[in-house]
Specification:
Length: 306
């Protein structure tokens, strides 16, 4: 279990995390009707920084909009969101880098299966920044569960209830002795892992599934593409077949809670020579440097909170 910090933001104020509770009759509890995002807060000698805060805020807004939750955006400007994020960082006296989870809950009681014109509340809590997958070579399994298609529950919206799909796939992988899964879409194309995006390297070109492949438009995925551009690593964003993974020179996953995690085996097939590849290593080092906030050239990625 991850360590959770004692002060939460809930119903417009800072309160002890044990008191931040939703009603069992709310749509958030009844239907999983909440949207969320998770982002790193880095603490270093220059202060405390949120990684790509505006992008996370925008994804929260977009997720709510896709699902038809229409009372969040009018009540939560970016400035108000920043104030809440700052308040919770200050309340917890952070001395280490952490993850922050911000969730918009529909907390109206028993409104039935609808989404518009209902009460919403923002919750934020902080927990330790521990990776959710091994960092030195993961073993993945193609899931028996398919990714929910855009026409059922869109993966580009980060909806709490939709994570049952990820739970099924992750547990199936764990039950089979693997670290995580590869989700395929209904046509058999590669989407992502249970909670991370996927990249492959073939003949020195970086490839990742395009955003119409039923995946979450990960903020780290976007960052990796930007790093590749800066480092002049050729990249392609396109549909990817499962068997392309088997013959890739390198495969890695990326996401807030996965960081950049190399993959050494998929479905009992060794990836490349089974070692962490050169391009993965270069991208990982640069990604780590950006997140640490130690290079002043990276300020465009980091929002100063304290
Ligand atoms: N896909 C899924 C399904 C996820 O849950 C996550 C984690 N948020 C990601 C991809 C990676 O997204 P990000 O880089 O924004 O953390």
């Amino acid at each position: 279990m991850a360590k959770i910090f004692p002060h939460a933001y809930f119903k417009n104020k800072i309160i002890p995390i044990e008191e931040a509770n939703l009603s069992i009759a709310s749509s958030a509890v009844l239907y999983g009707l909440s949207v969320y995002t998770v982002f790193p807060i880095s603490i270093n000698e220059k202060g405390g920084f949120a990684f790509r805060l505006k992008d996370h805020y925008q994804r929260l807004i977009n997720s709510a909009k896709i699902i038809g939750i229409d009372t969040f955006e009018p009540n939560w400007t970016y400035d108000k969101f920043i104030t809440a994020v700052r308040e919770i960082v200050q309340a917890n006296n952070l001395t280490e880098s952490v993850f922050m989870r911000a969730t918009v809950h529909v907390d109206e009681l028993v409104p039935g299966t609808r989404s518009r014109n209902l009460d919403t509340t923002l919750s934020i809590f902080i927990y330790e920044a521990k990776p959710i997958v091994p960092q030195n070579g993961m073993r993945l399994k193609t899931s028996v569960w398919r990714r929910i298609p855009d026409y059922a529950i869109p993966s580009r919206a980060k909806v709490n209830g939709a994570y049952v799909n990820s739970v099924l796939a992750k547990q199936d992988a764990l039950d089979s002795g693997y670290d995580d899964c590869i989700f395929l879409d209904i046509n058999g194309h590669v989407c992502e892992l249970s909670a991370a995006n996927i990249f492959i390297v073939k003949q020195n070109t970086l490839i990742t599934p395009d955003t119409s492949s039923d995946l979450l438009e990960g903020i780290n995925r976007q960052t990796i593409l930007e790093i590749a551009e800066d480092l002049k690593i050729p990249f392609k964003v396109r549909s990817v077949d499962l068997t392309e993974l088997y013959t890739a020179d390198e495969v890695f996953a990326c996401g807030t809670s996965s960081f950049v995690a190399p993959v050494k085996e998929i479905d009992a097939r060794k990836i490349g020579n089974g070692e962490i590849g050169d391009i993965t290593t270069k991208l990982r080092q640069r990604h780590e440097e950006i997140l640490s906030g130690t290079n002043s050239l990276d300020e465009k990625y980091l929002f100063k909170l304290i």
